[in-house]
Amino acid sequence: MHLSRWVATATVAALSVFLAGCSSQGSVRAAVKAEKDRNKAPGFTLKDATGRSVQLADYKGKVVLLNFWATWCGPCKIEIPWFIDFEQRYKDRGFAVLGVSMDEDGWEAVKPYIETKKVNYRVVIGTDEVADLYGGVSSLPTSFLIDRQGKIASTHVGLVSKSVYQNDIEQLLDNRGPVAEERTAPAAGGN
Amino acid sequence: MARWPKSVPLLLLAATSLFAQGNILTIAAPPKLQAKKNTTVTAKLEVQLRNGYHVNSNTPSDDYLIPLRLTWTAAPLAMKGVAYPKPKMEKYEFSEKPLSVFTGDFNLVTTFQVPASAAPGMQVISGKIRYQACTHKECFPPKTVEVKLPVDIVN
Fold first, then answer.
1. What is the DSSP pairing of strand B105-114 with strand B54-56?
2. Which residue from B1, B18, B20, B12 is spatially nearest to A12, judged by alpha carbons?
3. Residue-level pLDDT at A13
4. Most B-contacting residue of A159, A161, A164, A184 (CB-CB within 10 A), to test interface
5. What is the domain-level CATH number for residue A146?
6. Is pLDDT larger for residue A4 or for residue A23?
7. Which of A76, A186, B36, B44 is 20 to 30 A from A97 via CA?
8. A69 domain-assigned
9. Residues 19..48 of B with a Cβ closer than 8 Å to A: which?
10. What pLDDT shows up at residue A86?
11. Is B2 or B95 the better-scoring residue by pLDDT?
12. For A132-164, what is each residue's pLDDT tens digit?
């Protein structure tokens, strides 16, 4: 009797640990990495709403927030007003947001949405090939902060707070080193 | 002094494999449907959604959201309609207003007409469930799952 109860307790405990690991989706994977630990952001060429080609290389020397999103993704839509604000606030300091929509319907779905929301940064339609270059992008939103040297300084999977992005952006714009301590994800929606 | 029972590692392995291999949404294999000619019959699909996830209902709250849909290539039967469960209205961290969603376990019930002209015997008809799942923090690309329904057409 005691043994079976013990087995049940051990099983539940182990499953809890396993499930806690599963729920790490949506958390901040890393704060801004040390420069020596950053990998080069893969290059790509995609089309914007006007049909013009957009290359990541066009943003050389800038801090770029590369955001994979979709119109069907609720958490993505929370972030869009933040990114509009960042684009406006930091543009003159060498910062740009580049939105990569993963909508299957392409511009038919995306164009009305970005017009309605008055998105002030460039948006392109993504492809599976580009997503694969960035590790597959298995869930949305997924964002990469790319430093002025074209290297990925931080990755955020799932909804995080505006302040997390803002701290990372300012850190990269100021070219400060990484924060010493590991940051935990605060509640979304904070400013 | 309690000892670690030999069965525990096996139990844990089985439990973790179950989660590791499972999809967000799983559908139990439907039992064989006995379909008498010139009648209507119903087929129930039992759907399980992993804890912590939701899918948009068949009538989502927003035009941009992708509804859950069950469709059939029903021949030689004729599909009359699908009864979806009553959606839950749930508020998430990312939504300003409650969203119309399905969570947990639910059933999708399809009504088929069995034509008088249908040839007796075993058939397998195919259905597709398209859905788009999210947690409270992230969303996953729309996915389509195929289901096979064995049908025994009788006179």
1. unpaired
2. B12
3. 41
4. A159
5. 3.40.30.10
6. A4
7. A186
8. yes
9. 19
10. 98
11. B95
12. 999 999 999 999 999 999 999 999 999 999 999
Domain count for chain B: 1
- Rounded to the nearest angstrom, the minimum Cα separation between A184 and chain B is 15
Is B12 contained in some domain? no
| Angstrom distance (rounded) from CA B142 to CA B126 | 19
The confidence score (pLDDT) of residue A176 equals 59
Determine, for residues B94 and A159 on separate chains, whether the beta-carbon distance falls below 8 Å: yes
User: Taking Cα atoms as reference points, which of A44, A190, A49 lies closest to residue A121?
Assistant: A49
Q: For residue A36, which amino acid is it?
A: K
Say how many domains are in chain A.
1
Q: Cα separation of B36 and B152, whole Å? A: 8
Domain containing A83 equals 28-173
Residue B100 belongs to domain spanning: 22-154
Q: Tell me whether residue B109 is in a domain.
A: yes
Of B11, B64, B140, the CB nearest to A11: B11
Tell whether B5 lies on the interface with A, counting CB pairs under 8 A. Answer: yes
Check which CATH number belongs to the domain holding B36 and give it: 2.60.40.1250
Hey, CA dihedral for A147, A155, B131, A76, is it positive or negative?
Answer: negative
Cα A169 to Cα A21, A34, A52, A150, B87: the distances in Å are 28, 14, 27, 14, 40
For A185, the closest chain B residue by CA position comes to B137
- Does residue A184 sit within a domain? no
A112 in a structural domain = yes
- Domain annotation covers residue B1: no
What is d(CA B70, CA B86) in angstroms, rounded to the nearest whole number?
15
Looking at the DSSP bridge assignments, the partners of residue A40 are: A151
Q: Which residue of A has its CA nearest to B141?
A: A139
